[in-house]
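Researcher: I'm comparing several assemblies side by side, and this is the next one on my list. It has 850 residues spread over two chains. Same procedure as the others: predict the full complex and return the structure.
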Amino acid sequence: MENISTIKSDILKEESFLYVLKNGLKVYFVPKLGFSKKYAIFSTNYGSNDNEFVPIGENEAIKVPEGIAHFLEHKLFEEQEGNIFDEFSKLGSYVNAFTNFNQTAYLFSCTDNFYKNLELLVSFVENPYFTDENVNKEKGIIAQEIKMYEDNPGWKVFFNSLKAMYHYHPVKEDIAGTVESITKIDKETLYKCYNTFYHPTNMILFLVGDIDFEKAIKTIEKNIKNKDLNTQNKIERIYPNEPKEIKNRYIEESLSVSIPLFNIGFKDKDVGFDGNELLEKEIVTNILLDMIFGESTELYKNMYEEGLVNNSFGAQFVASKTYSHSIIGGESSNPKKVLDKVIENINHLNEVGLNKEDFNRIKNKMIGHHIMSFDSLEYIANSFTKYEFQNSSLFDYINILKSINFQDIEKRFKSHFTVDNYILSVINPK
Amino acid sequence: MKRIREKVSEGVYLNVINSDKFKTELISVYFILPLNKQDVTFNTMIPLVLKRGTKDYNNSMEIEKRLEELYGSDLSISVTKKGEKHVLRFSIEGPSENFVESNKIFNNKLDILKSIIYEPLLINNVFKKDYVNQEKRNLKDRISSKINDKQQYAVQRTVEEMFRDEKYSIYKYGYIEDLDKINEVNLYKHYLDLLKRARIEINIVSNLESEQIRKSIKDKFSYNEREEINLEREKVIFNEIKEKIIIDKMDVTQGKLTLGYRTNIPYEDKLYSAFLVGNYILGGGPDSKLFLNVREKHSLAYYVYSRVYKYKSIMLISAGIEFDKFEDALKIIKEQIELMKQGEFDQKSIEQSKKAIITSMKTINDDIFSISEFYLSKVLSNDDKNIEGLIESIREVNKEDIIAAINKIKLDTVYFLKDK
């Protein structure tokens, strides 16, 4: 077929294909020969952070209730003829969806009838059906979902840490909203959000598995609405002006847990990157976190032997264009002491410098992990779409990773771990 | 995918599964033991202490550095309960040879795994005291942290109450009060005993030639003086059952309801496949009776599902609900089961459930961990059916068998975790 472009990675021995529909929808494909499972994910660049925007065809920005992107995700499963779950079940496939800060994704995995499943996926995401009654009914279910998370200490300690780091940015709000905010959601606002963000130019359809791509494209073209819609939809999203400084140094809450849980957050002052620059920042910071807090460090060894942390201790960097932060978390009987050790260690490393041997080993490890991750269809699909929405590519990851040198790490260390941009969030036992 | 099973020594078996589909290879060594109260805490301590240090790599930092050199190979341990058996797993997972610049990576991985399992760091011929004490403290935290995950906690409490007088009630990580009895001397003795007596299964999923793998295993792992323990089959048939209700109170936002059923259908029974299909119709997926009635029709829950625990032949139903909806939810769940007993489900549900189960069986071969666990479960249940055979037995299920199977199940325990 014409107009299919290809990217190949010799290191990974993987390939990706892209076909752009007339209406602007990008369809990507990564073949995995010999796998029984086939996986598709239809995703829109719209998540819980997009709470203020100019609706399509209007001029004024509106503010919508927190949790609406997630609410919309729930409601798209409902069709006039009934529930779409049943249609997928008839084919023996598994259908699901998720909403995070930056995207809403609908996915299925199957072994048989891939093209029929694909047809269903495309048509249900493209057919919103909201009534006052079905919108109200969903509020009860989502309220239970919110309450389930309120009993989850890991979730609470994480969101509290975001609330301590950020003053205004919507990343600090729960993805599902609150029991209060969702009561304000109505079908009109849902349609407004849908029409603005579920536009083909704002979406990606990604396929992975032992699939015939040309046949898949034909299936999509036949079932997609707005076939010739060719208008570029530039969505105006409004984010509040977020100060570089943290909001609160310390936040705590009590829940039924056996020992305290903690998150130490480092708010990134250096935001606004996009594309490969953002991807590089993500990789560099993750290498750095492993070099400072990983299992092969003296810091970890000492804290573990002292009984300050256990093997739930870990660190991760989350990167996005409008916000980013590192979170170091775990369980500890004395979270404040852990924070002291962490800061002490950063000060110490500032004096003596980072170790190049550590860098080489960790880089090796990350290369191995990246290669191994290509055994998971879910990982390929989810990270591929994530990076596409950030204007970079999963296939650039390994090249960027290989090109990173010790100086990049040293530079990032100095800018990210400063003495005034960290917070501590603790969940204490009740 | 080709599999070779071979006896290495008395009670030691090697299972090599050959596939060139993956970029990762997996070596798992399982120690299988009878589940009993006096050993369970000791057993759990063994992998925790072993991964702290070996003769060549004195602490976990040294071990981790070595793993990082091996392109981020991951060492993992787990302790699980499969029916009334206690299974300790030591695994190493790392990139396959043709993806990294090393042609010895399989043997390197094998060496470090061998060193962790068989060459522990010893001080005066016993385990290092500090490591034992630190891991005792860690395990204590781990056991007490079972209250952190309320959904899991509700399941664990149901099992505890339901099997009060049976070994199945034993908690897989053991008991805080038994930690006091453990020291570096008796734990080392326990370790030596375990090496001698546990059933050992070595499962390898790799793209390397089976012959090469067999040779490496035989060169590196030597077994002698084996006195294998007899692993007993669980008791799974119970006809006289008195329903009981247990209510716990804790500071929670949402109530957690769990219903424990004895199925009275052992996995060897010809009704077992029919029961799997019946369970799926009831609470397997989003098209199930429970999901449609408890969640979609009455908005009572966000999650509600039913799970089968193969080795002990039980079925547990779980839901997260409002505290004052306990009676309502219980009533709806019981009604749905009653309707199934009377045959109130259609051919469409049967077909959909069969397809869902078959789909998950077909995808076992797409994941190295699932492959390894699948072959372990065949061994544990003395079942020689391959995946195709299992799929066939699901296909053959008919409505009468499902009705017969569901009529065998008996509600034993209703558990509810509510607010204070």
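Model: For your comparison table: The longest strand of chain B covers residues 24-34.
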